[in-house]
Structure formats: C-alpha cells, structure tokens
Amino acid sequence: MLHVSPVARTGALLAVAAAALTACGTANGAGTTADSGKPVYGGTLVYLEDRQESCIDPQIGGDIPQAMIGQQYTDDIVYEGPGGKIEPWLAKSWTISPNGLTYTFTFRDNVKFTDGTPLDAVAVQDNFERVVNPKTGSSTDGGYIAPFYKNSKVLSPYVLQVNLTTPDSSFLNVLAQGYFGIESPKGFARGISKNCQYPIGSGPFEVVKDVPNQEVILDRNPDFNSPPPGSTHTGPAYLKQIIWKIVPDESVRWAALTENEANVIYNPPSEDYASAAADHITMFDKERPGSPNSIIFNTSVAPLNNVLVRQALLYASDEKANLKSAYFGTYPYVASPLVPGTPDYDPALANAYAYNPAKANQLLEEAGWTGHNSQGYRTKDGNVLSVTVPYDSDAGQTPPEDLTLFEDIQASEKVAGIDIKLQPISTTELDNLYEGNGYQTLADGYWITNTPDVLRTLFSTQALKYYGTNADKYSNPTLDKLLAEGLAEQNPAQRQTLYDEAQVLVSQQALIMNLYPAEERLAINANTHGVSADYAVGLPDFYDTWISG
Amino acid sequence: MPPAEQRNNALMTVTNVSSAIDQQPGIVRLGGRARGLSPGIVLAWLVVAFLVISVAWPGLIAREAPLAVDPAHPLQGPSLSHLFGTDQSGRDVFSRVVYGARESLSIGVAATGVGLAIAIVLGFAAGLGGRWADTVISRFLEVLFSFPSLLLALLFVAMFGAGVGSLIIAVGIGSAPGYARMIRGQVIAVRNAPYVEAAKVLGHPPLRIMANSIFPNAMRPLLVLGTLGIGQSIVWASALSFLGLGAAPPAPEWGAMLAAGRDFISSAWWLEFFPGAVIVATALAATALGRHLQRRLEGRLA
C-alpha cells in the first residue's frame, strides 16, 4: 500500500542539520563499550522496533521508520558530518554555480547496487526523476526536492548536473538525509509495490526477506565498498545478518532485551532508564533536528482560530513539569518551533509560554470565554470551551508516555476551564480526519529535518496549498516572505536573522503546543558494540556494529 | 419444570384446570425462607455492598478525585496515603477503582439489559411465532453462535466505532444469542404447561395468557441468568476496554486502567493488580450470587 497518511507525513521526518546534535546520552559514534576488544565478524543482530510502514522504501511516503531501515541497505549522495559539515559519500566531489542554481556531482566509479547494476550518473538521475514525480507519492523527498528541481543532465557516465529553479540553501543537507538513499533503477522497473517490499541499494546490507509489519531480514552485502566517512572500518559489515522485527509494546521490547533475545531495541520505556545500568544495558539517545514533537493546532476551526485561545492553551499547561513526570526526566523540553541543534535555532525562545495560569485566564476572558458551566468549563454564547485531541491508538503508534503526558495536560487545562477531550482512534480514522479537515488538533506532530526550512514545510501558504503538510492550516504572507528569503539567502548571518524573525512569529502565533524533540533512542545489550547514529537525522547505523561472544 | 408431554393431556377436567392454575409458581421473593448463608455468599454480598456504595456515593469511600493528577508523584507504591498506590500521572489508584465501579458496572448492567432485551424479542418470537418463525430465528441464532461471543462483540465495535455506547451494544449483542436460545426453550416449555393449557380452555384471550402466564414464568430463570450475565459482561467490557475499544482516557474504567498499567508492569505491579483483582472479585460475586439464586429457585420449583 503506497498511500502514506498526511499525519504520518506530518510526523515524518528529517532534514538536515547541521549542527549540533546534542546527543543526550552517549554521543555519536560508538554506542556501547568502546574498549571491549577487537571487532569480530559474523553473528546476527536482532533489532526490535515499535512500528513500520508496509513499504520499507523511504522514497515512497517517507516516515522515520522507513528511513531507519533504508539507512541499512542504501548509501546517500553526500554525508553530513559533525557540525553540519557536508562531506563526500557516493559523490566524490561537487561544484555549485555562483547563482546557486546548478550542482554538478562527480560520483565514485566503483560502486554497484546489490543486483549488480552500476551506481552511476544515470542511476542517480533516475532517483531524482522518481521522487519529483507526483505519481511516486514521495511526500518527504518529493516535498523537499520537487519545488526546486528543474532538470538534470548526465554529462559523462559518472557526472550529473542538477539544475534548480530557485536557489535552495538546504539542498545538500536534504541529499544527506537517509530518506534519499539511492536505489537501483532496475528495482524501480519492477513497479512500486515490489520495490516497496524488496528495495535494492548499495548499502552494507541487503533485504532478503520482508514480511510487512512483522519482520525484515537483511543479509550482509559481501561486496560493500562505499562506507560513509564517519565509519571505523572499511569493506563488508561485521554482522552477517540483521533481523529487524516489529514489536509494538515497549515493555515487551524491553523484556526481550533484558532476556538477551534482542541486541538492540528502539524507544525503550522511559521508566527503565534508571535501572538500565544495573541490567548492563546502554541507553543511546540522539536528538533529531527539525520541529519538536508537539500537539498541532488547526487554526482554521473554532475555537483555535483565535490566537488568544491558542496562547491560553500554552500558558495553562505546565508542559515542562508534565514532560518530566511522564517521561521520567528522560526528555528535555523544547519551547521553540525548532529543536536546538537545527541550524539557525533561536535560543531566545527557550522559555516561551512558561507556565502561567493567571495569564491563561486573562487571555480567555479577553477572548470572551467568560461564563462557566456546572463542571467549571468556560462558556461563551452557550458553547463550551472544548478542544478534542485525537491520537493514534493503533498498536505501537502512540507511546504510553505520550498518553500520560496528554492526560496530564488535560488535567492542567481543566483548571483553566478548557475541556480537553482525548479521542483514541485508528490510523485510518486519523487519515480521514486529516483529509476532511475534521480535526481541531493533532497529537504527535513532528518533522525531522536538518534545516530551518522545516518552518516552510509546516507553516507556509505554499505547504498549505501544494504539499498538504501544513496541518495548522496557517497562512500568513509575512511569514511566507521570511521563509522564502531565508531559503534563498546565501549569507549565514543574514539567514540567521531571517529565521530568527520567522521563529518569533511562529511562536507568537502559538501554532503548536511544543513538547519534546524527536530522538533516536536505542537500548543496547552488553555484547553488542559499535552502534552509531548518523548526524543528519539520527538514523541507526549498524555497519560498524559487532557482537562479542 | 413440567414435562412437555403434558401438552397432549387434553382430557383435563375443569377442576383439574383450576388447580393447575393455582399451581403457578409464585414470583420469587429474594428475602424468602431463612437458610444458613455460606461464607462465600456473605463475601459476595459484601463485595456487592461495596460496589453499590461505590456506584452511589463514591465520595464516601474514595478520598481523592479520580482525575486529579499529581505529576510530581507518579508510580508511588501502595501506602497509607494511597492504599492502591498512584498511577503514571500521580492519580490515586484506589479512588480510580472506586469511581471506576460506576463506569464498569453500568456498562455490565446496561450490556446485560441490551442482551436480554434483544433475547426476549427473539426468544418469544421463536417460541410463540409458529414453526417458520422458530426455524428462521433458530438458524439465525445458530449462525451467531458459530462466532465466539467476544469476537461477535469485537465485530460490532469495529462496525459502530469505539466508545462506551457502542461497547454496551456490542457486548449486549454478543451475549444475546445465548439468552435468546434459553428464553425460546423456556417459552416452549411454559407454553405447554398445564396452567397455560387450562387458561386456554377457560377462554382467556391470548394476550392475557401471554402477559399473565407465559411471560412471568418464562422469565423467572432469567433473573439467575441476568445475574450471572452481569459478571460475564463486566469481564467482556473490560476486555474490550483493555483493547482500547471502550472508555476514552482518562475515564477510570477498570479495563482501560489495566491497559494503561500494562506498560509499567515490571516496575509498578499495583497498576495491574488492583483493577484486575476488583474485576475478578466483581465477576466472582455476580457468579456466586447467580448460582445461589439458581439453587434457591430450583429448590422452590422442584
């Protein structure tokens, strides 16, 4: 099934980023004991994840679980290193024309896909053409690339010239994201559904078995010769095989890990962080840049079409304290529209909308919600001030900690007289709500990307009209102008000023209830070593991983 | 129960008819003959008393509001200040269990009511509606029987959408086939009882016979069934809520509490233990009382 829900897209991912990657636990690179001896070849890694799309090709749709598995079997055109530095990967070198419109890439001439097809300029061109084609349904890659992509020309077997319609200062960062792993055009020729199940890349592993939504088996690519610059070894991966399994319940994943039935699990339960060391388990957290996990407000429907009500919602709830409680202090609170570590993040907003119930009440009075019903909820002209928060109740979609957080927020808002109704619904129902604009809010909105251009993806009129990624249904010409100028700006200081202004505007408009940054969170058992995450968007990397006996 | 062969007893005299009418069993009086009560029954009544107070005046037992969060004190173990501990939002689990009685019991009672109502219509139509109606309804019930009841309930939740209302209807529909078949059998048996035959011979109009003779006598076993059924319905409703198909958070519904606590089972056993124990105690109490009633009724009817 190729359709990827807009909600998933909202929750989708990634980008660039430069920067910082303030990892919260172990930093980049080795996740586990670095000094545990010499790496050995062989062994099977069992990795348990909370969810997966039925299509594991990240070019289709483009949600974070697809990119996480995609990273194992594909390589990217360029690599993003520490501090956001773009380094060569499949492209040995490249040039950018002074007007910022023409990129000329020279690719390595010895890389092959696992089906034997050479990875050359024609193959990369096919990948570009595929994601910009609306029929492909590539919401993440297509959303980033299609608006700027004009055409491309194969200048020689390994040289490709890509022409843009307008300058895009985040273009290389986008290419460094695992979402745009380069795949074999021969694989594309089999049709989208076949390629969804058995995508073919040039990465350290290859997909040999795929039971959608249950497990994927990846075998070592014996001919692998294109490791990214951050790797600690060359040649084929140490691991012989990866069993990539979907286990929606976090407590079940944790139990499997502590019983050594799994080597690495994704999203371990927060309440187990405290006991991890005693169980010889390493926690590996890496912040993902972009827009934080949040509750999105639909500004096109009452009562959230009133900015005073939106601001009151933010003042009324103590998200910082609620987050600390629900996630046992394992997540930092993010108050700004960008996660710290995203380029051009504005630290001035770090304390925006600090808990202030008096202010919330004042704003609601100002907005005319002056009456109260028998339950203490505010009323205006006979209507009760009520906001519904639908969340995905399908297995593995909403972590239990999030539900706790929502219930805590619900209790805080009640004190201010706002009736928050939590509505558990299926992914399908959520898609229908999204498509019919039948929602007041959406929970678990986040967008992982390594550029501040995420603000355009989420809040611009362009995104509202053309990409379907503006779930806030917000439109403001002033913001649109700032975001367009920021994207085209080549001067870093100027760019920072424009994006600072944009962040302040988004924050003032109270478009989302900020919660916490998306993170790659892994828990790793004692005999698994060398787990790392990429810098661009925080995808697990098992190329350097090995298992001790 | 009067044997069915009596339907052929066409030679009854008027005297016999009168005495047959007199033999109609009376309406059950719960407070009937004094009899030694077993400790189990006393315990069951205590559980019921606790539940009745929880439903009627929860504030009498629970000191805290069921939705009052205290994010600074999540997952505290049982103590004097929190008898059943606190949950992941710092809410008092004891208060939630007490307030949850209203939600869980009303779902159980209402679902049993829905099930019985559907069953009465189908059962009476099959029992009194003639051969064709009987055949059609009986085959229909057999089709429904081929689905496990819980699966049937799941199917209806899938059709109506999740929520307390659809949960009640779903569990009601899921339990209806069993009741309906029982009622049909009862109606057929009573329909042929001597006192009904007698009422017919005396020329009572059919509606009166149905209202005065068949209905009350056919329904008596349902009192037992219904009591047993409430326990069953509570378990099913909790199961569906556990699966996320019932009450929406933060409602203190027992099944939903179990579902929410499941993720903390390794570190906070009390989140699972207390709601689970209350579900078990309620279902056991309803079953014990149902059986007790059944024994007493059988004693009277023998």
Draw up the topology in text:
The complex is a heterodimer of chains A (549) and B (302).
Chain A: H1 6-10, E1 44-49, H2 64-73, E2 78-80, E3 86-88, E4 91-96, E5 102-107, H3 121-132, H4 139-145, E6 149-156, E7 159-164, H5 171-175, H6 185-188, H7 192-197, E8 205-211, E9 215-220, E10 241-246, H8 250-258, E11 264-266, H9 273-276, E12 282-287, E13 290-297, H10 307-316, H11 319-326, H12 357-366, E14 371-372, E15 378-380, E16 383-384, E17 386-392, H13 400-415, E18 419-425, H14 427-435, E19 441-448, H15 454-459, H16 461-467, H17 477-488, H18 492-508, E20 512-516, E21 519-524, E22 528-529, E23 532-533, E24 540-541, E25 546-547
Parallel strand pairs in A: 1-10, 1-11, 17-18
Antiparallel strand pairs in A: 2-3, 4-5, 5-7, 6-7, 8-9, 9-10, 11-21, 12-21, 13-19, 13-20, 14-15, 15-16, 22-25, 23-24
Chain B: H1 14-22, H2 39-56, H3 58-61, H4 93-128, H5 130-145, H6 149-160, H7 164-191, H8 194-201, H9 206-242, H10 254-261, H11 270-301
What does this structure look like?
The complex is a heterodimer of chains A (549) and B (302). Chain A is α+β, with helices and mostly antiparallel strands and 549 residues long. Chain A contains 18 helices and 25 strands. In chain A, helix 11 (319-326) runs antiparallel to helix 13 (400-415) and helix 17 packs antiparallel against helix 18 (492-508). The longest helix of chain A is centred in the C-terminal third of the chain and has 17 residues, at 492-508. Mean pLDDT of chain A is 90; it is low at 1-35. Chain B is elongated and about 75 Å long. Chain B has eleven helices and no strands. The longest helix of chain B has 37 residues, at 206-242. The A-B interface holds A 249-251, 254-255, 269, 271-272, 275, 318, 321-322, 324-326, 393, 400-401, 403-404, 406-408, 410-411, 414, 421-425 and B 67-69, 71-72, 74-75, 88-90, 162, 244, 248-250, 260, 262-268.
